[in-house]
Specification:
Length: about 180
């Protein structure tokens, strides 16, 4: 055993030669370890377990999410960290939607009416959320980070069905009307 000297430490054999591990395998392991380290920091910061698990799962497949997680770990400003979390959540949802590809067309002349409908829908839903404990409570119930929920309610963007369903389930809103014309 010249190239691979084995040493016992805490009852486990440790190989000091990495010739049996290919460079790409080593890089993949290093990436996983880095992500798990960031996940521990995210956990300590109070992010939900489901968000962290989904972020790591997607980051292992998509470097963009891994890069965002690294940016989050290096960032010191709370506001910037919240924006990064919201971006990670958006990417998680986009990755979940990649297998559910549906063709849907919206007429250009309908855009203004749809935007008004979306804003009215989100305002009504927001009032319901506030009656039931607010954004922080909704974040706890859904596992969606608070910054993502704030972005959701403050934007006029079309909501994703998956987000709407999580909110509806968390608030036990059985009759939540999701308009297929504008929800993606």
């Amino acid at each position: 055993m010249t190239a691979q000297t084995l040493k016992k430490q805490n009852g486990h054999k440790i190989s000091h030669g990495s010739s049996h591990i290919k460079k790409e395998e080593h890089a993949a392991l290093a990436k996983q370890m880095k992500l798990f380290s960031i996940a521990k920091k995210m956990n300590k910061s109070g992010l939900s377990d489901s968000f962290i698990v989904n972020a790591v799962r997607v980051a292992l497949e998509f470097d963009g999410v891994a890069d965002l997680m690294s940016l989050w770990a290096e960032e010191t400003e709370k506001k910037e960290r919240e924006e990064i979390i919201a971006d990670i959540q958006d990417m998680i949802e986009a990755c979940e939607q990649k297998d559910k590809h549906e063709e849907m067309y919206i007429k250009f002349n309908d855009l203004e009416a749809i935007a008004r409908d979306i804003r009215a829908f989100k305002d009504t839903l927001y009032q319901e959320v506030m009656k039931r404990g607010g954004i922080n409570k909704l974040s706890e119930l859904t596992g969606i980070p608070q910054p993502s929920l704030s972005r959701f309610f403050n934007s006029n963007a079309m909501p994703r069905r998956s987000t709407l369903l999580l909110i509806a389930r968390a608030l036990d809103l059985n009759g939540l009307p999701i308009d297929v014309k504008w929800s993606k």
